[in-house]
Structure formats: structure tokens, C-alpha cells
Design goal:
The complex is a heterodimer of chains A (686) and B (335). With 686 residues, chain A is of the alpha+beta class. Chain A folds into five domains: 68 residues, Phenylalanyl-tRNA Synthetase, Chain B, domain 1; 208 residues, 3-Layer(bba) Sandwich (Phenylalanyl-tRNA Synthetase, Chain B, domain 3); 69 residues, Phenylalanyl-tRNA Synthetase, Chain B, domain 1, CATH 3.30.56.10; 198 residues, 2-Layer Sandwich (BirA Bifunctional Protein, domain 2), CATH 3.30.930.10; 88 residues, Alpha-Beta Plaits (2-Layer Sandwich). In chain A, 30% of the residues lie in helices and 26% in strands. In chain A, the strands form eight sheets. Chain A has a seven-stranded mixed beta sheet with strand order 20-23-24-28-27-26-25, with helices on both faces. In chain A, strands 4, 6, 7, 14, 15 and 16 form a six-stranded mixed beta sheet that branches. In chain A, strands 5-8-11-12-13 form a five-stranded mixed beta sheet. In chain A, strand 9 and strand 10 form a beta hairpin. The longest helix of chain A has 19 residues. The termini of chain A are far apart. In chain B, strands 1-4-5-9-8-7-6 form a seven-stranded mixed beta sheet, with helices on both faces. In chain B, strands 2-3 form a two-stranded antiparallel ribbon. Chain B folds into two domains: 91 residues; 220 residues, Bira Bifunctional Protein, Domain 2 (BirA Bifunctional Protein, domain 2, 2-Layer Sandwich). In chain B, 42% of the residues are buried. Chain B is built from 13 helices and nine strands. Chain B is elongated and about 95 Å long. Chain B has 335 residues and is an alpha+beta fold. At the A-B interface, helix 7, helix 10, helix 12, helix 13 and strand 20 of A face helix 1, helix 6, strand 1, strand 4 and strand 5 of B.
Chain lengths: 686, 335
Amino acid sequence: MKVSLDWLRDHVEMDLPVEDVAYKLTMCGLNCEAIEAHGTDHVLELEVTSNRPDHLGHRGVARELACILDVPLKPLALDFPEIAKDTVGNALDEVTSIEVDDDDRCGRYTARVAFDVDVGASPAWLIRRLEAIGQRSINIVVDLTNYVLMDLGQPLHAFDLDLIEGPEMIVRRALRGEHFDAIDGTELELDSDDLVIADSSRAVALAGVMGGAQTEVSGTTRRILLESAWFDPVPVRETSRRLGLTSDSSHRFERRVDVDGADIASRRFFHLLCRETDGKVLAGCMETTRDGLLATPPAVALRPQRIEKILGVAVPIEEMNSILLALGFERVSESASESHWAAPSWRADCTREIDLIEEIGRIYGLDRVPDRSMHVRVIPEDQQALLIERTKSLLEGTGHHEALTFSFGEEGALKDLEEWWCIGDPWVVRNPVRVNEGVLRRSLLPGLLSCVRGNRLHGVDRVRLFEVARVFHRRDGIDRPVEKLHLAWVHSIHDPVAGADPCREIRGIADAVLEMLRLDNSARSSMTWNPVSGGSGMLPETAAALDLSSERLGLLGAVCIDGVSGETWCGEMDLGTLIDHAEFRHRYSEFSRYPGVRRDLNIVVEETVLWRDISSEVESAQLDHFEELTFVDVYQGKQVPKGQKSVTFSMAFRASDRSLTREEVDESIDGLMQRLESRFQAQLRT
Amino acid sequence: MSEGSQVDLETIQSEALQAIESASDASGLELVRVGVLGKKGSLKQILRSLGQLPPEQRASFGARANVVKDTVEAALAAARERLGGPSAASATSGGIAQTDVTLPGRVPHRGSRHPVQLVASRMINIFGNLGFQVADGPEVEDEWHNFTGLNIPVDHIARDPAENFFLEDDLLMRSQTSTVQVRVMESTPPPLRIISPGKVFRPDTVDATHSYMFNQLEGLVIDEEMNFGHLKATLLSFFQQLLQEEGMKLRLRPSFFPFTEPSAEVDLFWRGDWMEMGGCGMVDPNVLEAVGIDPEKWTGFAFGLGIERVAMASYNIPDIRYLYENDVRFLQQFS
């Protein structure tokens, strides 16, 4: 909110440079975002928090300053002459009346009437004040309503009483589809949730938001009716939002204006009107107020030792008292251990002891609170975090850049990939602002691949990315998303190097992660990589899945990205579940210091035979002194018959108590070859 | 051992001879030479284990090894003749006629960490040193944990559907990491000293400083004698460690949040400007009562810091959107 320094001086005597004023306000909770010179005046742009509607007027800001500077707030002149009957002899209740149909939404409605008003130009001081805060002068009546609004934070609206049809003003719900011409020129269609002020034939104002064009005060206006009301915050906000119509009035009503302010603002308006014009005010005020709205809230107990417990500083009692008094609180009673305070009507936010402590703290100065150290506390090591960190290090160390993508996105071309991870429907954002905010991701890859695409289209020829983040799955019987921690990595190359094997490189990352995690025995033994036949979103014949029994823990493969050349391979694993199976500990185990024997075997098998099966056959043979099996190469071409392939692998043998001889190993190899021959019709390649 | 070593000598010789025979050029021969006779070659390795043999076997083993050495050298020389390669003299100097040793190295591919994660890790470490334990919570929350438990009343503007990403029923993408405070307090009795880093979601218009998803680090301390002075000192220690720069200043400027009271904005004076880094305050008694903690006995403070803000300030990143594009040319600057 824009605040004029000269205007503040109308309320409080002060002789401070503008920067000091700005700083003092900032440090009591009214953040000054900018200072602008306006002629000889200065205008402060203040950030008003939503709990302080009283700061949406100059007097509220001045009250804060008066409190900080320990000077009195100047009194506000509210008096004006009242005349019992107008020129044709009518009293107030003969020219208008008020009927509130919906006092849930309109807590208070007051109306006063002035006649013989000469609606001319505003005096220079008024124009200066309004222009300083960026408002345009219109005429004396409209300007005074705006001035009082910006001064006291209470919205006012003046109607041309001669344009009101019928004497009665009715506060009612709008009719469904009711038409309304707002004062700013917009034409609106209302809803039965909207509250309007109506005369006998139509809506003349949208309650709390905007007046109507048809009853606007103009140069020809002679009689005005001034509305000063209290509307319930939530419906004003809802109407304003639905219609996309905000105003200085709605901004204040939706933050809850002072319930006592309606009458004060109305009086202030007529005081100024009578001071600046020859207008005459009809005696009295039409008013309806909801029962209990003006009731005094219960006093709040305040204990000095509680202040110290929260703030960490013993604020002297006198200082505490003078702060609260200056802010408008009233001391109801006082004893040695506590005092009781009634909050002013404009501070509906202060209902508890802690609210008063905050008031004292921010005026006393939070910067005056001495620093206190906390006692030392040792935290346990977080193994899950450590394993995530190691996983990321591994990916970083193998040339991948860590990406940060959004948790939701568009349901796109890679739907199959998402569904491979979770068949259940995705979780959907009910009210997305943009299309790309629609669907919670079930897989990290679509987001990561879209970054790959961006990179490749921008001319980055080789892209390696990874991300560790959450995906959101739907499970029967669970009424909220199951959030799982996934790891995904991608390698996309414009021009694959001959001999490079991106498929195995992608798999190598998975293997390295699995090895690093040191999975427990049961997971390790029942975990297998299997070909995926279709429906995974990967290109045909490229996809492999990591399965633990029936649980899906990983998927690797190649994808085709629209408009991107070369090859793109990617992998994703359920890192959270894998970590659950991690046996995180290093423990020395004895190893043989004797030389071993290494034997390479080159066998020819049908091309459909999988390494998965060959290797498990080798492992399950449980050969004597068998130590390790290593894949070396697979070959298809001229040297082997069509439809077959040669597979080379290397086996290490070692005894724990002596050097092995080649002859000992040869026996084992012969036995193994028999097994491989009977299972796969494997032949040694010669 | 002795028998094994003999066997190995045999193997070395036969494998070397076989390799020499099949070598097709000088560099292939050189590989064999280095692999067998070089400083770390297989023959040298085995000779080094000579000391482990019983003394009576050492002599014969050494003699046998010399035979192997001579045999291999002779075969190498013969092969060099055959291939017409460089002389033995040049072979000893590396076998490669001209090596420009000033050529740049072959650098392995190096990856990088995302700047937001780099900063988050530093923040977690610093708070870890201050005794804060990391707590985790879901990104999808219910209204109770996102609002009600945080003293945000039913008609509060923060609950407006237009200000949040609502899913089904009362579920929404959490709009703040303070939700984790509530979850931790529900499940763990005080004293508590936790931080919770993570993603939060608000349908803000995207521009250079706003994104509809960003990262926050939430902190919560509940203990018997915790006051505003502890909050100040904690944040000050944190920023001093984080920035390690002279002239850094911190101020806690009174503000308003429903879940803390008194509340304050955390302003950092750094490189000549005041910047808003987040919010903080003493935990509101209503928040404590909502999870069954007696606010008369326990007090505490909470804070929430924007991780992107720290990252952008630390690394001079002018636009928050760069953080989510994941352009390799951006990311590799943080390797």
C-alpha cells in the first residue's frame, strides 16, 4: 500500500528523515519496499500482512509510528452540523430506509444523507493527498470517499440519492443472472451467491466490491446517500474472485475491516464534506447491525514471565504497558502476576496471550533480543540418506549431470512407460493452471527425456542426465498416492561411436548401483533381469526389466524421441525399495592368497539363448573352487552358423589353501560343458 | 608355492611366445614386452616373490626365470626383424617414435550435481552440525497437515483452490514444507530438532523469480527452554557457515504467518542488498495443541528457507527457470 509521509504527519507529529520512518516501519512489521519522492512529499510502498487490515489506512500506520516514537496520535475530528429536515421538509427516515435481508453477509449497514451538495472540484490539499498515492481526483464527493478509505481503511460509497428508485435500500442476494453495470464500466452477470445493494428495481452496488454506474455521483448530483458498512470477508472475496473484479474496497473487506469503523468513517466523511462544501447533513443515521457483532471480546491475560519465556528477554512492565496502550489496547485489570487487556476493535487478530506477546516483541524490537546458543545434540547417522548420496555420487562419477524436473506433467507419448510402473490411474491435479501441470508422474523418465530433447534440439550432441526423485502411484485400498523414490538415468548420443555399446553401458550403471547397495542375500538371489516383450514404452527388443519375484524394480531400454537423431537409452529403478533391501555394512571376509586359474570358454548356442540362463546355469553348477564368472563377448557373423551365436566368458577358480592346477580345473570345465550342452545344445567353438 | 611359481613361469613364457607370434606390428610387440619384461610386467612380478621361496629353491627358480627372460627377449628381437620395426634401442625408449607429452589428457566424462541439490546438501550438513536431523514427509498432503494443523483457518485465503494444486478429495500438492513439522510432532514426542528439505507447489505465474514448484528447507525445534534468542542465534550461525563472508548481516523482520507467533521474515544483507530468504518464528501454541503438545511446558521455533533463492544468490543465477531447464551447458558448470 502506498503511504504519503505528509499524510502520516496529519496524524502524528514527527520530524524524522523519510529513510528513518521507512526503517522503523519495516522493523515493526510494515516492510517498506520502495520510497518515491512526490513533490515535497515522500511516498512509501508498504507491504501489509494479511492479518493487519488496520494498516490499510494512513491512520493505522500512523498509530504504529506514534507507538514506536512514543508520541500521541492526534485526535480525529468527527463533528459536523446536522439538520433535522431537508429543503422539502423531510427527515432522514422519510427519504430513505435500510433493509438487510442477509445479515450473515452484511454485518452492519449505515447510511447518512446530505442535500444541497455542490459536487464540484476538490480543494488542492485533497487532490495533493490523493495524487501522491496514485489516485486521480474526480469530484469532491468521490474524492472524499476515497480519502477516508485511504485514511481510515473503511470503504465508503456515495450514491446519487435522486437516482435511487424508491426510498428503500435493500441488502439482498443477487438473482441468478441478474445484470449489473459496475462503476468502472464492466457489465456483470451476477449469481445468487453475490450480495447486492438494491433499490426497488435493480442492483445499485455489488456489496463490498463496487458501486453501480446508474447511481454514480456526478456534477449534477444534489443529494447523496453515503453507505458505510461491514461486509463479511469470505463472501466478498468469493464474489470478487469469481467475477475477476477487485477494488480498494474488496481488498479491505476481504481482510475484515474494523467493526467500529463504519460509523467513525461516515462521520469523518461528513465532517470533511461540511468543512469543504456547503452541503447539509440530515440529522441521524440509518443503521442495522447484526446482534453480537459489536460485542466486546473477552479480555486477554498476559503474564510477564511468559513474555520472557517466548521472547527470551525480560521486557520491563512499564515498557510493556506503554506499548499496548499506545497500540489501542485497554488495561482491564492488573495483578502482580498478570494483567488483562481488551484489544481495540480494529485488532480482531489479537485474542490470545501470544498475540499480545508478538505485539510487545515487534515494538520492543526483535533485534534487541539477545542471541542464545542451543545445547549440543548429536544426531544419528541417516543410512538411507547416505545410500542416496552414494548413488548420486556414482551417477555423477560416471558422467551424468543431475537434473531437477517437475513432479507433475502432461500425460504424453510416453504413457506406456508410466503405465509399466503403475497400471492404476494417475493422480490428477483438479485445477491445473497450465496443461503441463495436469498429471502426477508415475515415472521419472518422461520428464527427463523431455530435458534430453531440449538439450539435443539445442545442439548438445551427447546428453547424460540423471535424477533421484519421487513418483506417485495408485494402489487399491490406499486413498492417497504411494510416493516412491526412483532413480532414472539417460544417455542420448547424436553419433554413436563404433564399438560403443550404449545398451550395456546403461545396464552397467544399474549393475554398479546394485553392487554398491550391497543387497541382502534373499534379494540378490531372487532378482533377475528379463526381456520385456512389449508395452513398456521402450523400443521393441531393447527393453529389460529388473524383477524381484513379481515386483518391478527396474526398466532399461532405448526410446525414440520425436525429432532427435542418434540413439537414446535410459534406465529407471525403484531406488527406495532397493535401499530397503540394502545391507549397509562393510565387513572383511577372508580371501585366498594363492594363485588361481582363469579359464575362458567360448561356446556356440542358438541366438535366442539368453546370458541370464547361461550364467545361472554356470552358477548353479557349483563347480569346485569356482570364484567368479565374467562375460567377455558375444559374436554373430561369418564364423558361426546362421541363427547361432558364440558367447565368450571367463571363469576364475581359486582354492583357499593352495595353488590350483590347470588339471583340477579342466575336470570342472568338462562337467560344465556337459551341462551347457544338455541344456542349450552348446558346443565349444573351435 | 614353488610348484605354482614354476607353473606360472611356464605359462608366462608360453603366453608371451604365442603373443609375439601373433603380433602384427611393433606396438603390439611393445605391449607384450611391457606386459612381461616391463617394470610391472608379469616376470618382474614373479621375481619379486622370490624371497618367499625356501632358500634352497631360490637359485633354481632364478635361473629358470632368466631362461624365460632370455627366450622372450630373443623372440621379441626375431619378431622385430620379421616386422621390420624400429630398432631395439628405440624400443627401450618407449617404442613410439615421437610422443608429444604436452598433448592434453583424455579426461573421463565428469558429471555434476544440480545447483539446487548442491546448496541443499550444504544446508543439510550445516544444520546437521547444529544437531538438526533430517525428517521426510510426502509431497502430496491432506488439508489437515497442510492447513488445519498449521493454524490456517477454514476461510483463510491460503486454502483457496486457486492458490493450490488440489487433487482428489482433500488431497493437494503441499504448498509448504511446514507440513512435515506437523507429521513429526504427531509421531515423536519432544524435544525435537529437525529439518525437512523438499519440493513445494504453488500455482504462481512463472517468471524470473517464481516457479510453480520450488524447494524449501523447513526447520523445527521444540524444547523446554526455547525462545526467540535461540532462533536468532541458530539462523545466524547457519548463514555465517553457509556464506562465510565478511559483511554479511542477518535481520529478523516482524511479519505474519499463521503457524508461528511472533513471526518474522529472514532478511540477509549480502553483497550490498537485503534479500528475503524465508520466514521464521516461535511455534504458535495452537500448532502445538493441535498435536497434543503442552505449549505451557514446551516452546519452540520454526523456519522455512527457500533453497532456490540461496542457490541463485550463491551462483549468480539470474533466472529461476534456468534451474528446471536442465540444459547440459548450464548443469556442467556445477561439476
